[in-house]
Amino acid sequence: MKLTGIRSVEDLAAAGGAAGLSGKRVFIRVDFNVPLDKKTGKITDDSRIREAIPTIKLVMEAGAKVILASHLGRPKPGKTEGLSLEPCGGRLSELTGYEVHLPDDCVGDSPKKVIYDLRAGQICLLENLRFHEEEEKDDEGFARQLAELCDVYVDDAFGAVHRAHASVHALPRLMRERAAGLLLQKELKALTRLVDRPEKPYVAVLGGAKVSDKIDVVEALLNVVDTLCIGGAMANTFLAAQGKNLQKSRIEEDKLPLARTIMSKARDRGIQLLLPVDAVVASSIDATQGEPASVDAIPEGTMALDIGPRSIEQFGQAIERAKTVFWNGPMGLFETPAFSKGTFDVARIMSGASGFTVVGGGDSAAAVKQAGEQIAKGFDHISTGGGASLELIEGKRLPGVEALRSAEVSE
Ligand SMILES: Nc1ncnc2c1ncn2[C@@H]1O[C@H](COP(=O)(O)OP(=O)(O)O)[C@@H](O)[C@H]1O
Ligand SMILES: O=C(OP(=O)(O)O)[C@H](O)COP(=O)(O)O
Ligand SMILES: [Mg+2]
């Protein structure tokens, strides 16, 4: 993904006079979609907030008024509970010392007033963009309402650039002045090695819960990798497509035909596709203890919540042989200690492997950090984006990046 025709926020910050940022209202699209503890609602990993700070500081120090915007989770229409960006504002304030002001909406009079009143050292963080259904519809009217709040647009939300949503796609195309933030640039640069002539064997390890989103990418990855290891909830759909009885496990019924197509294409092309041979099962996601089981004999009334020891070993062997490894999606419900072993062991093996290793995704990156500081250090790159890095590797154009190019002005 080349940055040709895309300005950098550094160029804008360095420009003097009318071309610079001083006194301007700068909208920075960040990805503050951080993992939250299901029970307490507390932020369990603040990496996405920390990673956005260099751009925020740069723009603040250039004398601009900073307006931050993000989505958080996937709120159902009319439901906002537990998905306010307020905790992210609190954490940002603790980390930077800036005073963070949160209007009660992302469009309309409330943010306009907060932005008008901003003084030195103060930042405006708009409320969750997805509280408006128009955001995910890439609605131009909604984008125009956001455009009214600012003079300059900066995209630093790498984790969301694969979404053609209003704040990522329609909005920048309405803005004359738009640029890529430092995190977005850093991510695209670091991930180049996975795209431009990656060293073979190339292994991708996939898991996680966003199966219907990501299974389409799996098909495209068959053109790119030599081995695919599939764990997490993603594996359940593949195992069920092989005719196995996964009992109460999460399965995407409508994706069973696609899973079969992927498996037969992999066979035809000689791509190794490794699925779990064993699992850790329990009767509910609230269980505090799991039992080992073969994927051919998942006990009635239980669900697969982690990969088992034999699967860890098989995935581990593929990872250790690889020259390039990309991982997105935890191997299980790692937030619960009883189902974290598969994810933490894969993290440990990948960290110690000799190939070029990259892990991406809000939850996967959090898992690697929770596995330990030394383990996290062993990765060549920890990306803030899961779906975004997958689509980049697949070779897709990313709507959020394309919308920053100078040829894409829609006035
Ligand atoms: N077998 C499983 N059953 C239920 N949830 C799972 C399972 N495997 C993984 N998960 C969940 O997947 C979530 C992360 O998925 P996803 O968002 O796709 O990953 P990432 O953020 O790394 O891109 C985690 O919250 C994890 O608990
Ligand atoms: O968390 C994200 O992606 P990820 O879980 O693939 O890392 C991004 O914030 C995108 O969120 P979305 O998949 O709800 O559009
Ligand atoms: Mg996630």
Short summary:
The protein has 411 residues and is of the alpha/beta class. It has helices at residues 9-14, 47-61, 86-96, 109-117, 140-147, 170-174, 182-195, 211-221, 232-241, 256-269, 309-321, 341-352, 362-371, 373-377, 387-394, 399-402, and strands at 25-29, 65-69, 99-101, 122-125, 152-155, 177-180, 202-206, 227-230, 272-274, 278-282, 291-294, 303-307, 324-328, 356-360, 381-383. The chain has 16 helices and 15 strands.
Please state the CA-atom Rg, rounded to the nearest Å. 22 Å
The overall average pLDDT, rounded, is 96
Euclidean distance between termini CA atoms: 25 Å
CATH topology of the largest domain: Rossmann fold
Number of helices: 16
